[in-house]
Here is the input.
Amino acid sequence: MADRPSGAPEDAAPRNLVFLLSDEHNRDVLGCYGHPFVQTPNLDALAQAGARFGAAYCNSPICVPSRASLATGRQVHELGAWDNAAPYTGAPRSWHHLLRDAGVDVASIGKLHYRGGDDYGFTEELIPLHVLHGKGDLKGLFRRDPLPKTGTGNLAAQAGPGRSAYSDYDTRIARTACDWLTDRADRRDAPGFALFVSFVMPHFPLIAPDACYALYEGRDLDELRFGLDAPVDGHPVLDHMRRVSDYDAHFTPETRRRALCAYFGMVTRLDELIGTVLQTLEDTGLGPSTSVIYSSDHGDNLGSHGLWGKSVMYETAAAVPLILRDPRLAPGTVVDAPVSLVDIAPTAAAICAPVVSDPAWAGTSLLDIARNPPPNRPVLSQYHATSSNTGMFMIRQGRWKYIHYPGFAPQLFDLWSDPQERHDLGQDPSFAAVRQRLDTVLRSQCDPEAVNAGAFADQAARIAANGGRAEIAASADIPFTPAPA
Here is the structure.
């Protein structure tokens, strides 16, 4: 670990960082977030040893834009990273670049979902997963006039116990991370490090290892749907998404039960793999000098509101788990102030290289937020990708969640009294002042109508640049990016 500069306060001493990221982890499917039976002992222990953030959000509930915001500390509309066919190219520079410039070794292991082949600021990039062919999901660019989706029934048909390429890949990721830490511990003269360990589970296909699936197989559907049984709400934008991505239509009660058993089993397997990395951190003696972050790029609706996958602003999709273990935070701290993944960049800098900052970062160090929670802090998430016929802009502030849909009615939820978002207050005249206040907050961060128009224009240009509708329609569907060999 890098030495503390002479005269620097202990609070500013550089430390190592292990940043653990998963893909599509519904925040509430974790013991430490209140789930009654899912088994996640390692993440629960991590939360008990550090701080758990109860209102953390991705900046876009889909993989590629979320990961671009996470890397750069900037909002999606500032990057033009609208969809899964707009992967991060290494520009603008990431927090990885800035830490590397400051002398920190920044290594990545696992899924990145960038374009591939660019300089992303890592000193090492091990077994990466990038978007397919450097382009990603071009079919998702057709939003108002979507191309027919094939294979949506596979989500239900494949759900159950077994072995998948993703679970095998995650096992490789964990093993590689453990080997990296073991090797690092033997290099006593090495500089400080930031190790980014990025898993794929519990992203679909919903196939869990047999032993993990068996932990949940005996539960009935009502038990498994704990917190995931909100009804369809009828908002026209979301109805459009249900028609285009008709996953829910393929489920029977039995396949729904199998899907939830598999998802919970994948979360438990993920927790087991994370446990091996955390144990190696302690066994090598690196634990005391290393801070740990756990989060996910977005959640999964898991059938709630008649939706599967991500792509909406419900808590099931837009909220993420976020845990930070650092000696400056009291064990068992719970932070209710809203935060988002753009806060990771200044947090990583505060941990590994306190002299590093970037005026373009949209976030604030989680260390500062945890120690002095701001009472009225808003966070922004937005969506401009597959199956949506307009943009979505979400502001979370205090108890309120406001969702603006250009050209359509807004939604408003009181998350303190309605955490499952069953009661939309978007048209209730009693809450007009709340909606107006939150709309003003949104417009202080961006012009949603201009951003929405810009996203559609950029997507139209990329459709033309890639051969137009007929050529893209003839290409293969990409339900998920395959794991590397």
